Amino acid sequence: MGPRLRLHSLDADRKLMQSSHRAVGCALVMSAAAATGAACVASAASAPNGLSYSKASGRVVQRQPPAGACTARGAGLYARPDAHCTPGALNPSVTQATLSRTICRGGWTSTVRPFESITRREKLASMSAYADHGRASAFEYDHVVPLELGGAVNDPRNLWPEPDYSSRSGFYLNPKDRLERVLTAWCALARCRSPVHSA
């Protein structure tokens, strides 16, 4: 990769970070973690980033905000969720003490990820909350704080109908997915000492 391409890539990554969701979990503390050796994940007693912990079950359809109650910030692929409706939430099972059994264990997210039969209904209700009237396939029902970084499994404060590319050209379909992969890799290097594999 030449110097110009490398610089373009860094600029693109910086823009992704600036326009992505509110940085939470590992994303919020990554620079401090790198400098101080702090944990990627907050302790079970508190969340320094101000986010709530949630044990909302991934096996039960969760109530969504009322129709029209939420407004995305921005538009298109760089839209962000309503900070009041969807600020993000954390999984209390992911702590510094449990990293090797949770986010640092390959395949762990597949053990906690909600079933599609649950999220399909939630996604439609969430689209109604955000007044999104397009096709459901044009949106990804996405975790604000990714499961791979300790995000709450099925709390409406951590899931929203994120606009997606209009055509499917790869597995990761929107700019936030690329950012999540970078942050997950950073967290893996900082705390797990091996790549974190998501399912």
Give a verbal description of the structure:
With 199 residues, this protein is mainly alpha-helical. It is 33% helix and 7% strand. The protein has five helices and four strands. It has helices at 3-19, 26-36, 108-112, 116-129, 175-192, and strands at 52-53, 89-90, 139-143, 159-163. Helix 2 (26-36) runs parallel beside helix 5 (175-192). The longest helix has 18 residues, at 175-192. The protein is globular and about 45 Å long. 35% of the residues are buried.
- Number of helices in the DSSP assignment: 5
Number of strands: 4
What structural class do you assign from the helix and strand content? mainly alpha
Number of domains: 1
Write the SSE topology:
Elements: H1 3-19, H2 26-36, E1 52-53, E2 89-90, H3 108-112, H4 116-129, E3 139-143, E4 159-163, H5 175-192
Brief rundown of the structure:
The protein is mainly α and 199 residues long. It contains five helices and four strands; from the N terminus they run H-H-E-E-H-H-E-E-H.
Short key terms for the protein model shown above:
199 residues, mainly alpha, 5 helices, 4 strands, 7% strand, disordered C terminus
